[in-house]
Design a protein that fits this description.
Layout (H helix, E strand, L loop, with lengths): L2 H16 L3 H7 L7 H11 L15 E5 L6 E10 L3 E12 L7 E9 L1
Antiparallel strand pairs: 1-2, 2-3, 3-4
Helix pairs in contact: 2-3
Length: 114
Amino acid sequence: MNQEKLNYTVKVLTDFLARKEYYELSKFTGGIRLSATDIEQSVNEYGREVIEFPEEGYQQLDIIEIDNSTPKQWSVNVPVYTKEEGMSDLTLELTLIDTPSELYGAELNNLHVL
């Protein structure tokens, strides 16, 4: 996995979340499992203000390669940071998919408290 590409993809996705651009996040991830409304509801139910993903957050990513996937895929748990807590209990669960572009393809599997 290309670390720079991973970091850039995570940054783009978490920026959508922090800016409350739920439609853009859903569109980027294909809206397969969570719609913009689902994402917004999860954030609102959590009840805290999501902030920009900090540099130290990249060390907290939980990455597992999905065996025998073509193209290559990874399951990635991304901690969500809030104004009130810093690293929160809210987690963005993604499947990242290898692409020739500067960003990995992404599916949003869940956004919930772990």
